[in-house]
Amino acid sequence: MIKNLKNDFLILLRNNVFYFLIFILIYFLPKINELIRIHFIQSNINQLDILSQITWLQATLEILQAFLIAPLFYLLEQKNENALKTFYFVSFFSLLFVCIGWGGGIWVIAKIVNYDINSHYLFLYFQWLNGCLEFLVLFFITLFLIKENIKMLIFICFLKFIIAFLIDFILLKCRTFGVYSVNTSSIFSNLVLIVSSIYYCVQTKIFIYKSLIKNYKIYCMYIKKQFFSKEHMYPAIEQLLDNTSYIVVILTGLNLIHKNSEYFTAMAYFWGIMLALILSFGNIIQKIIAGKDKISFKNKLIFVFLTNNIFVFLFITSYFYIDIIANLVGLNLNNQISNIIKSLYLAYIIFHLSYSIKCIFYALGLFKFTFLISIMVNTLIYLPYYFSQNNIKNINTIINIFSNGIYFNCIISLMLFMFLISYKKQMQIIKMLQLWIKF
Fold first, then answer.
1. I need a surface site. Which of 110, 390, 405, 425 has the fewest CB within 10 A?
2. In this structure, what DSSP letter does residue 274 have?
3. Which is nearest to 268 in space by CA: 28, 35, 29, 33?
């Protein structure tokens, strides 16, 4: 048994370590661009305030991303959905979301967070377009990971970084563009990646092309079916609850106390280091759990558990080197920003654990579990704070609200995870009894 576990562990490590490193680059390299942007504009508080609005806009886009991208591992790997049909589905809704956002959706969200966008609405409009293009890039990243196409993943990783870096470097120095160059570089790099990926998929027969005009009824039926499917609706509603709470309680509170710039700068640093690892490992977890191979579910879980311990150790160790790391990346941390980062450290170590469990649920198609977690966290933690917003006097209160939600999320996730393990064991016993009875 131990020998089998060791062999399975080595197979999983060998098959996934390079993909993990690539995903670190995919998530980390854009954060380098983000830090460069902050470096160029952090002397201008007005431009930093504009850039910080990406936070609430991104929170909104994450809801739409959950609807389109979250179920892809389960659909493309477990259910063997047609890749071209899925691409049409993602493309259709990406275009629809652009139209909704530009048609008044952004204004509505801005009103919710009590923010006046009249002075820089063009920045937010094009940032919204970039976010919707990002959905298509994420679709291809997920598809190439499932197909284990390491060359295309490397191509996407470096091409996106190089294009965005070059355009940022040129335009950020130009006062005419300033912060608005952020949109230009991201939109252009995403368009290049989308066109390149479509061409590659057609050439390699990943997309088996059928006329869209002649088969429009088939594609329309598929889009309608997927729109109302539990695989798409549960993650979307779950993310809607989570991010609505985040926008209304956290970001509105930050705007009220005028601390959105400090919070954004802290998160840019924090996400750049930690979230790259968390999201990268989350993708690998889904690839491992959803993968159809001979390795047992139990051994896969043991592998995930052991590698999780390594990440937790790295996160705890990095806490003591915050200022050193900040100096290495060229980020100036004042006391306020440094305190925000340190206050959130434990919360995001816990977030890493709960997110790993969430990825396991996603890979197994257990979207009801994550939906239930979201309902409980938002009802019992964030909703009471929403009705007591007058008590939000400083940023420490907001950090405590956010942290409490993450802690409670992890507790509920662990309880449901233990239920899943218990259920799996019971099913194994039932199968053994059935075989014994037949024998």
1. 390
2. I
3. 35
